[in-house]
């Protein structure tokens, strides 16, 4: 049977992460959790206690980086989890967040990956999105951390706008000397041992490009795989924004992304995806419990 490593980014303890690790608990699985370094000590202790819920999996919980939306800190976290887990020699590496749940049993997930062993499950946005991604990396975004996701701090918005205008006036193009192009999509993916080792070995080639960029975590896997021999192993290689490519059920039409509720249960269970995001007990606890108890049976 294949061995699976689940690499999970969390910043707080909640019911979703509690159920997530229990659903993933299996003798062929390893669970690696990175806690945002900004997380309070009390929350960290609660998350560390998840080790007591695990009966079969190897589990590693650590806290190394402060995570800020849109910055290269997310890529640093994912790479650090990858570096820790590749030493154990898993067959597949799955990136998840603390707002995700599996929507298939461990047995079904195992069977699916055995049938598709060797495929890389990486999502790509539309063709237009790929063009936008390339332009995003042409200039330096020095103030991504200060702007935040909401971009509601007018001072930093003005500074960023001025910085970009100056760079365009000076015809700055930070990509012109690179021998690869940028691609983009979801940062949640499932990759093989071979590609995971390739990323760990070659990441230094790309790392500098992800500094002073914007939402670089949505380009890491896409950019590296398209510049590697593993592009021929993509499960779905079209630029069509199909999240089935990474086996994640994510709904961007109803939310940012949409938070699933109990009325979505049947759709989730019928999906061909293995995982779904996102869930929030404050919005709807029942859907979380429905999934947990049906997969635990």
What does this structure look like?
The protein is an alpha/beta fold. It is 38% helix and 12% strand. It has helices spanning 15-24, 41-48, 73-86, 106-115, 127-136, 144-147, 154-169, 193-207, 220-226, 265-270, 285-296, and strands spanning 4-10, 29-35, 58-62, 92-97, 100-102, 190-192, 248-249, 275-277. The strands form 2 sheets. The chain has a 5-stranded mixed sheet, sandwiched between helices. The protein has a 3-stranded mixed sheet with strand order 5-8-7. The longest helix has 16 residues, at 154-169. It starts with a strand and ends with a helix.
Describe the protein's topology.
Layout lengths: L3 E7 L4 H10 L4 E7 L5 H8 L9 E5 L10 H14 L5 E6 L2 E3 L3 H10 L11 H10 L7 H4 L6 H16 L20 E3 H15 L12 H7 L21 E2 L15 H6 L4 E3 L7 H12 L1
Parallel strand pairs: 1-2, 1-4, 2-3, 7-8
Antiparallel strand pairs: 4-6, 5-8
